[in-house]
Amino acid sequence: MSGPRSKRVGIGVRPPANPHAEAWIRQGDADALNKGDLYTARLTLDVTPALRARIKIAAFGRGVTVAELLRGLLEREFPEHRRENTP
């Protein structure tokens, strides 16, 4: 028997890129960057499993994510321009 044979296969030339597909992919990157610009601080808190379940059910019922629901709740409770004498 002769020595081991090389079973390497060449990869070949990359197919030409589809400009529409490339633009769509880049758009997703831009959307992710824009969202990251808005929400750059992470807040972690502990809740009971029952409260977590209620929050998830409420978010699902409203057609939003838990994060969107909680951001809205926090924005309403802590508006950017709050009156001085409000508790």
Describe the structure.
- With 87 residues, this protein is mainly alpha-helical.
- It has helices at residues 19-38, 49-62, 66-77.
- The mean pLDDT is 80.
Write the layout of secondary structure elements.
Elements: H1 19-38, H2 49-62, H3 66-77
Organism: Luteimonas marina
InterPro entries: Ribbon_hlx_hlx (IPR010985)
Protein name: Chromosome partitioning protein ParB
Describe the structure using short key phrases.
87 residues; mainly alpha; 53% helix
- Portion of residues in beta strands equals under 5%
Residue-averaged pLDDT: 80
Q: Give the total of beta strands.
A: 0
| Structural class category | mainly alpha
The secondary-structure element order is HHH
Rg (CA only) = 25 Å
Helix content: 40-55%
Number of contiguous helices: 3
- Span between N and C termini? 89 Å
- Biggest pleated-sheet summary: none
Low confidence ranges: none
- Molecular shape: elongated
